Amino acid sequence: MNTARPLLVAVSGPAGASTSALVPRLAGLLRERGFAVTTLDDHGCFLCRGSARRGPRARRAHALVHAGELAVRTSAARRALAVRALGRPAVVLTDRGPLDGLVAFDVPPGGGASGPFVRLARRHDLTLLIESTPTTALRGPDREGTARSPLIEEARYRAWAARLPRVVRLDGERAPSRIAADASERVLDTVRRRRLPDVGDGPPPTARGRVVVSIFDDAGNPDYRGGGALVVEKVARRLADDFDVTVVTAGKHGGTRSRDGIRYVYLPVRRAGPRAGQLVFLALLPFLARRLPHDAWLESFTPPFSTSFLPLFTRAPVVGVDQGRSAEALWRRYHIPFFLVERLGLRCYRHIVVMNEADASAVRRLSPRADVQVIANGVQRRQIDDARLGGGDHILFLGRIDTWVKGIDLLLEAYRRGRPPLPLVLAGSGTQTEERRLAALLAAHPGSVRWVGFAGEELKRDLLRDSAFLVMPSRHETFGLVALEAMSYGKPVLHFDLPALRWMSDGGDVAVPPFDVAALGDRMRMLASDEAARRALGRRAGHAAQRYTWEEMTGRYLALTRRLIDTPAAGRRPRKDRRGAPWPTSH
After folding, report:
1. Phi, psi (5° rounding) for residue 503?
2. What element of type H or E holds 27?
3. Which bin fits 13, alpha (ψ -120 to 50), beta or left (φ > 0)?
4. Between helices 114-123 and 98-105, what is the axis angle to 10°?
5. pTM
6. What secondary structure does DSSP assign to 503-551, as a single string?
7. 3-class DSSP state for residue 317?
């Protein structure tokens, strides 16, 4: 993965070119276009501010010190700006750069003193050389005590400009406003060549729309790594076929990276911890929406409040994606009324995507004006192996380690009561607190229970393939992506009869009354003992999973995003029939 660093631009020119006046004017123009800008004034190194040093050796030593200090200052400014840019295109502007140093110290090409300046010039993305007509009057001595003629100085700039990369000459005889406008266009051209999106006050040269997808979770986040991160990755890749896509997520360190044609912006909030980090992430999204140019924004809801009131901070359409609306579940667990904020926030959204029909009904009651669409999760299409149907040597729990939400305490108690003839395997990871809680529960329930920790793709594939069935004892779910993955392998799914999980009905699932531990234990024993029943259920599960492919589901996100970007604001609301229900916009 490559980090998209801020541009490094030097404004160079002879003493009469007024580069110091151009830098703040250019910085202002770039900020108006949405750039984050840092300016550096070259007042010389600490030797320049001291007494003059004469002689070739002293001048070479001085040149090395000057180049080294300039390199350190530009590098530090670049790193600092990358952190606070928050995904915006960024530029470090230096008043006088390595080209000016080569001319001032009059070092010979190929000499040891010129090397640091040349290497620093190659690190610059652009050098703007302001050329002006030299006068014939002799100037006084320079900082090294060497008399300079404007004609000689101009010749040195031309000679070194021909040797250095990415030097652009600008006519310094024009009005300062014209010079600054020309310079800003040169910077924009450099950004476009680097294929960075979101620059300027219009669409990029490809005329592709700009889509931002935000989600707290990420595949590299050890505290969660849930199904939502996988869904966002799949959706972002599909949208990248038609749009410039930026994914905003949480990280330990801030910065921007590119992967598979998608730009990832990491907000440095994970240092606050898994719970506080979510709150900080929600608080930062509105500020980011004002700074990060976009034509549409897909926001995956983040606990505990789910919504961040994002539509109030942008004129572009915002789609709330309900993959983790858990305020009511947190109310039952902690008795803190997060749902009051969630209900108020939902009313701000005009477009909401949910994973199941039960949540669609609930969201329509809470936000009657919203266009609510059901887009389920997807799975890779697999060919069912009839020889493996009904087989398996263990019962599998696969998911995030969250004892209360995922019902792991209920599962262990049901396993103890039911005593099924197969061992129970727990696979997943969570926060340190949740993993310690699970370890304590396992110590209190000795038996044929094994916890294997986080399951990467290969281990997950083996566990699903070799399992007899999957058990999902969750107290709260929005879809249950892991259930769909198990079904694609031809495995039955045992779960509590939650409204959000009824999409599995008659699809090879076995549902028991919610939170009935005795019934869950009885069904675990029955399925573990009856291979024929598992074979029949597994065949139905495999056929049902064929209806949920990533191509179909991500295609619906693509169709929705196209409609929102291509339709004027007045036409984005779907028409309603006489009963007030919106006409369906996806199948």
Report:
1. -65, -20
2. helix 19-32
3. left
4. 160
5. 0.61
6. GGTTTTEEEESTT-HHHHHHHHHHHHH-HHHHHHHHHHHHHHHTT-BHH
7. coil
- Axis-axis angle for helices 227-239, 481-488 (nearest 10): 80
Burial class of residue 206, CB neighbours in 10 A (0-12, 13-18, 19+): exposed
The H or E element spanning position 38 is strand 36-41
Residue 412 has pLDDT above 80, yes or no: yes
Specify the pLDDT at position 199.
Answer: 41
Find the DSSP H helices in 302-395: 327-334, 338-346, 357-366
Tokens of 283: 């608080």
Contacts of 100 (CB under 8 A, 6+ apart): 10, 12, 13, 42
The answer to whether 501 and 495 are in contact (CB under 8 A) is yes
How far is CA 429 from its chain centroid? 22
Q: Which residues are CB-neighbours of 42 under 8 A, at least 6 positions away?
A: 70, 94, 95, 96, 97, 100
DSSP letters, 370-420, are SEEEE----B------GGGTT--SEEEEES---TTTTTHHHHHHHHHHH--
Residue labelled with tokens 């149907």: 389
The 10s digit of each residue's pLDDT in 506-560 is 888 999 999 999 999 999 999 999 999 999 999 999 999 998 988 889 999 999 9
Task: For residues 469-495, give the mean pLDDT.
Answer: 93
Six token digits for residue 163 = 């040797």
Q: Model confidence at 44, in pLDDT bands (50, 70, 90)?
A: low
Instruction: Report the amino acid identity of residue 387.
Output: A
Tens of pLDDT, residue by residue over 219-278, are 666 666 667 788 899 999 999 988 999 999 988 888 888 888 889 998 888 888 877 888
List the domains of the chain with CATH numbers: 2-193 (3.40.50.300), 210-374 (3.40.50.2000), 386-545 (3.40.50.2000)
Specify the pairing of strand 244-251 against strand 255-259.
Answer: unpaired
Q: Tens of pLDDT along 98-131? A: 888 888 887 777 666 777 888 888 888 888 888 7
> What element of type H or E holds 265?
strand 262-268
- Is residue 8 within 8 A of residue 84, CB to CB? The reply is no
